[in-house]
């Protein structure tokens, strides 16, 4: 089965943005591609949200669900309460659409939340009014604890998540052979379906549901208009509507729906959302900063209303307002709402996860610490040197690789999670070093200037040609030339200005101070940097002049002979002389009295 979050390798662009964004660094970079590591992933979906090339994908279970619906079994939809904030057309229209998609009935996941609340309150009654559990409502938090903070597993709630409890409750009411499909904002719910089959059988995101509605040409706005004209079209929730527990998807909603919610100071429970805050809380607890409060931890900032399977670009304030008003309408409406089930709650407290786990099932979430090696300081130091960090001063901790520090990057490299090429400063230094070696050793003059005609870089050959020096400048001294105006070295600096508007390379033959130079202008950065190569071709040109001089002597003698037979040749002699002289002029070196200048080299 495909991992719930995976990478489309052909679309990955080596930007390492997912590495920077992953709260647990579960991304392995191999051969330049960033891949999600299943055993490390906590399914928060943040990499999917931030990937600029959309290479991170969510497993699409729509085809499997559609096939599931025609299996002949009764299939119930467990609809997340965040649907109220996700679909402005209204929950009634959505329930009608789900029925038309083929579901036997729709039930609210918030019923499972109400059962969880009842279990917590029952447990608190037996323990002096307190319950120091960590909520299991957020599967990403559960995955984080199991994989990265295994010592906190005993602190997790003793009852399954609201979705798992809801699935179990539906099976109790309608039979063990029914199917359950969750629809909500969460990717991690797919993991619950994978690890505890049947609780639920499948999980779809709101994004997948929208795709399904389009495929079936179901317009929620039109359905809402039909319902307004005939309210009886709305199918009822089974077994009934949920009450205060519909507030679960916003931060603090779980606690507000408990009896503790009446305490404005919430002295027995704490609500926290957002990856940074949640991770910090868990790390603090692992270090011994424990307390007796019940912890409602939601990994998505603001709660499930901002889950990775939600529609992007909508205001969190608007979604929170919708969710709050939806719950208010439930508790002020005259219609009956779910009153709980004490017998089922007793079963939950007695059996816990045994209620949904099959006998003999193997744990699916080994802690990361069980397969990650602990590296010695010597190994880390060697890794740092491999990354070009030979001393502390070179550990810039710039974060360009995606890790918070060079040391973390070195450890990831040792773990096989990172590649040296991810280090931006290392690659820049190597590139600069290669450029420096090329510039210093190339036998022709090279200069690069910016749009203000200031020298950005040059080499010794350039300085010897135009700087009136007969010695070599090496190392850091050569960098001192950078920033100086080009006109200090060449009188034809204005020629460089013409090249900024021409992206194509241009070649010229330049006569400069009794030298012949082959000049090649090229664009480094369009409208920003221009470079020039100066090749001294004086020596071969002088040799050519010697040949031309001897040719002149031969031509002169030939002309004397031609003149003797001019009467016979007529005007042909004059034309011959003109052509020969033109040939000589074309190859002549200008004399000292002539001005220097550029001659365009024709291709």
Write the layout of secondary structure elements.
Layout: E1 5-7, H1 17-21, E2 27-30, E3 33-36, H2 46-50, E4 56-58, H3 62-69, E5 75-79, H4 83-86, H5 91-101, E6 105-108, H6 110-125, H7 139-148, H8 162-174, E7 179-184, H9 189-195, E8 202-205, H10 206-215, H11 220-229, H12 253-256, E9 269-273, H13 275-286, E10 294-298, H14 316-332, H15 342-351, H16 377-386, H17 406-414, H18 424-441, E11 445-450, E12 455-458, H19 460-466, H20 476-479, H21 494-499, E13 506-512, E14 515-525, E15 529-536, H22 538-564, H23 566-569, H24 572-587, E16 597-600
How would you explain this protein's 3D organization?
Helices cover 40% and strands 14% of the residues. With 603 residues, the chain is an alpha/beta fold. The chain has 4 domains: 1-59, Alpha-Beta Plaits (2-Layer Sandwich); 60-355, no CATH class; 428-536, Beta-Lactamase, CATH 3.30.450; 539-600. The strands form 5 sheets. The chain has a 6-stranded antiparallel beta sheet. A hairpin with a 4-residue loop joins strand 11 and strand 12. Helix 22 runs antiparallel to helix 24. It is elongated, with a radius of gyration of 39 Å. The two termini are 60 Å apart. Residues 567-571 have low confidence and may be disordered. One of its GO terms (molecular function) is metal ion binding.
Structural class: alpha/beta
Count, helices = 24
| Helix percent band | 40-55%
The outline comes out as elongated
Q: Which value, in Å, is the CA radius of gyration?
A: 39 Å
Give the termini distance in whole angstroms. Answer: 60 Å
Q: Main sheet: which strands, in order across?
A: 12-11-15-14-13-16
What is the total tally of β strands? 16
Q: Tell me the major beta sheet.
A: 6 strands, antiparallel
Domain 4Fe-4S ferredoxin-type: 3-31, 32-61
Protein name: Putative PAS/PAC sensor protein
Organism: Sphaerochaeta globosa (strain ATCC BAA-1886 / DSM 22777 / Buddy)
Pfam family, one: Fe_hyd_lg_C
């Amino acid at each position: 089965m495909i991992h719930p979050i995976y990478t489309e390798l052909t679309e990955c662009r080596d930007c390492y943005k997912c590495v920077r964004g992953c709260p647990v660094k579960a991304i392995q970079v191999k051969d330049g591609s960033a891949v999600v590591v299943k055993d490390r992933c906590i399914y928060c979906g943040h990499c999917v949200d931030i990937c600029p090339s959309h290479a991170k994908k969510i497993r699409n279970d729509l085809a499997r669900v559609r096939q599931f619906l025609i299996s002949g079994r009764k299939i119930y939809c467990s609809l997340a309460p965040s649907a109220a904030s996700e679909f402005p057309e209204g929950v009634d229209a959505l329930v009608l659409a789900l029925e038309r998609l083929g579901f036997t009935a729709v039930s609210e996941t918030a019923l499972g939340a109400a059962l969880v609340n009842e279990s917590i309150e029952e447990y608190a009654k037996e323990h002096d009014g307190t319950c120091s559990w960590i909520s299991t409502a957020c599967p990403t938090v559960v995955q984080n604890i199991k994989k990265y903070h295994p010592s906190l597993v005993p602190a997790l709630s003793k009852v399954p998540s609201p979705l798992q409890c809801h699935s179990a409750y539906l099976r109790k009411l309608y039979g063990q052979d029914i199917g359950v499909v969750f629809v909500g904002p969460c990717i991690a719910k797919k993991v619950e379906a994978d690890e505890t089959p049947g609780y639920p059988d499948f999980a779809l995101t709101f994004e997948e549901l929208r795709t399904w509605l389009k495929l079936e040409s179901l317009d929620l706005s039109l359905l809402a208009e039909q319902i307004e004209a005939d309210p009886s079209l709305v199918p009822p929730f089974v077994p009934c509507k949920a009450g205060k527990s519909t507030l679960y998807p916003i931060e603090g909603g779980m606690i507000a729906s408990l009896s503790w919610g009446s305490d404005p100071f919430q002295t027995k429970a704490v609500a926290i959302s957002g990856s940074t805050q949640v991770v910090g809380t868990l790390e603090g607890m692992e270090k011994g900063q424990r307390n007796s409060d019940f912890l409602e931890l939601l990994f998505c900032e603001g709660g499930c209303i901002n889950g990775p399977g939600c529609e992007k670009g909508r205001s969190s304030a608007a979604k929170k307002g919708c969710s709050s008003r939806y719950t208010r309408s439930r508790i002020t409406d005259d219609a009956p709402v779910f009153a709980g089930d004490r017998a089922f709650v007793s079963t939950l407290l007695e059996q816990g996860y045994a209620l949904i786990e099959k006998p003999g099932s193997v744990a699916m979430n080994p802690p990361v610490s069980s397969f990650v090696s602990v590296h010695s300081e010597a190994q880390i130091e060697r890794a740092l040197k491999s990354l070009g960090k030979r001393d502390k001063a070179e550990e810039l901790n710039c974060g360009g690789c995606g890790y918070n520090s060079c040391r973390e990057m070195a450890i990831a490299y040792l773990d096989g999670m990172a590649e040296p090429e991810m280090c931006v400063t290392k690659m820049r230094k190597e590139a600069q070093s290669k450029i420096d070696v090329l510039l210093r050793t190339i036998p022709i003059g090279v200069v690069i200037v910016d749009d203000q005609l200031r020298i950005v870089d040059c080499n010794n050959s350039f300085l010897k040609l135009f700087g009136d020096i007969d010695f070599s400048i090496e190392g850091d001294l050569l960098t001192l030339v950078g920033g100086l105006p080009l006109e200090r070295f060449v009188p034809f600096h204005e020629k460089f200005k013409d090249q900024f508007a021409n992206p194509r390379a241009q070649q010229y033959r330049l006569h400069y101070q009794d030298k012949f130079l082959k000049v090649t202008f090229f664009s480094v950065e369009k409208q920003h940097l221009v470079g020039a190569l100066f090749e001294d071709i004086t020596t071969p040109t002088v040799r050519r002049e010697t040949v031309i001089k001897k040719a002149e002597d031969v031509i002169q003698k030939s002309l004397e002979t031609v003149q003797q037979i001019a009467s016979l040749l007529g005007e042909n002699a004059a034309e011959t002389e003109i052509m020969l002289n033109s040939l000589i002029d074309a190859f002549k070196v200008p004399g000292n009295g002539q001005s220097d200048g550029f001659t365009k080299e024709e291709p």
